[in-house]
Design goal:
Layout: E1 2-6, E2 22-29, E3 33-34, H1 38-48, E4 52-57, H2 63-73, E5 82-86, H3 98-112, E6 117-121, H4 125-135, E7 139-142, E8 166-173, E9 182-187, H5 191-199, H6 201-204, E10 216-222, E11 225-230, H7 231-263, H8 267-284, E12 287-288
Parallel strand pairs: 1-2, 2-4, 4-5, 5-6, 6-7, 7-8
Antiparallel strand pairs: 1-9, 2-3, 8-9, 10-11, 10-12
Helix pairs in contact: 2-3, 3-4, 7-8
């Protein structure tokens, strides 16, 4: 699968206009920053049926606090989107301390049951691979052939030189739908495997005969839009939108009641109006699945 990773530097990017199979968003940095663009893109990925993930950029200082901040800010994403740890030298006071990196990863696993991907440059592959292997985590490795502009590549330069789940092969990507440079990535897993990575122990705890969060719904229809998505993502979408609908219905009921009192309308007719409005909203949440 071909994808992109983005942060507030790409504010305004419309994922429906940019060709990509998946997207990974910056969620937090250290214990002080939450990316304001992250959730909007997460919700858009869910609506589009695209696999997605979020990452924390490590600053150093307190490994447990950084991991806790990440999980606290992303609590609603756990078991739905891929979790990643961004290990770079810039702004990282713990750079070179693999025990610190391991502690961040361990805390995420402890709190979520999810083994996050570890992002790092190929220049430190031999170091971070030991951290990943000790915890059975996947790697997301960055290495570029050059800094020239490029589109999505089916076979990035030096592909296969190291074992990784995702390869970031450009930071100067140029694709339709966005007038600026993008990080381009290639995932060596399917959408179904992505969902299993994201689910972590939630997938392992479910019975083989039951529908699982990681199961893929093919040709599912949400709010009239047809796409493929995991069961977990569909349920997360429904949960988020049900809350919005309940708020709207409460406001509608109050408005109708006030109007009825002002105009002396028939209470039964008013009740029917509210019931029809609720039914119309709930019908919009219906998920249909095309059987093979």
């Amino acid at each position: 699968m071909q994808g992109i990773d983005i942060s507030n530097w790409q504010q305004g990017l419309d994922l429906s206009a940019v060709p990509c199979d998946f997207a990974i968003m910056k969620a937090t940095e250290g214990t002080w920053y939450t990316d304001p663009c992250c959730d909007g893109w997460v919700q858009q990925c869910i609506e589009l049926g695209k696999p997605w993930g979020v990452y924390c950029y490590v600053n150093g200082g307190d490994a447990q606090a950084e991991a806790d901040f990440f999980i606290d800010q992303c609590a609603g994403y756990v078991h739905h989107g891929l979790l990643c740890v961004d290990w770079e030298s810039g702004g990282n006071d713990a750079w070179g301390d693999l025990d610190y990196l391991g502690s961040v990863v361990d805390r995420i696993i402890e709190r979520t049951g999810v083994k996050p991907l570890i992002y790092a440059s190929a220049s430190v592959y031999d170091d971070v691979v030991s951290v990943a292997d000790d915890r059975d985590c996947g790697l997301w490795i960055a290495q570029y052939a050059n800094m020239q502009s490029t589109g999505h590549q089916d076979a990035p330069w030096n592909e296969g030189a190291y074992d990784c789940v995702i390869r970031q092969y450009a930071s100067t990507g140029w694709v339709d739908g966005w007038d600026g440079a993008l990080d381009l990535d290639k995932a060596y897993i399917s959408a179904e495997q992505w969902a299993k990575y994201a689910a972590g122990d939630a997938a392992a705890d479910e019975g083989d005969d039951d529908m699982q969060l990681t199961d893929m719904i093919t040709d599912g229809t949400i709010m009239g839009e047809t796409s493929d998505a995991s069961v977990g993502n569909c349920l997360y979408w429904a949960e988020q939108n049900t809350e919005k609908i309940l708020t709207e219905v409460a406001a509608l009921s109050a408005a109708v009641e006030a109007l009825a009192k002002a105009q002396g309308a028939d209470p039964e007719a008013i009740a029917q109006t509210v019931e029809d409005a609720v039914k119309a909203k709930l019908d919009g949440l219906r998920l249909t699945v095309k059987a093979d």
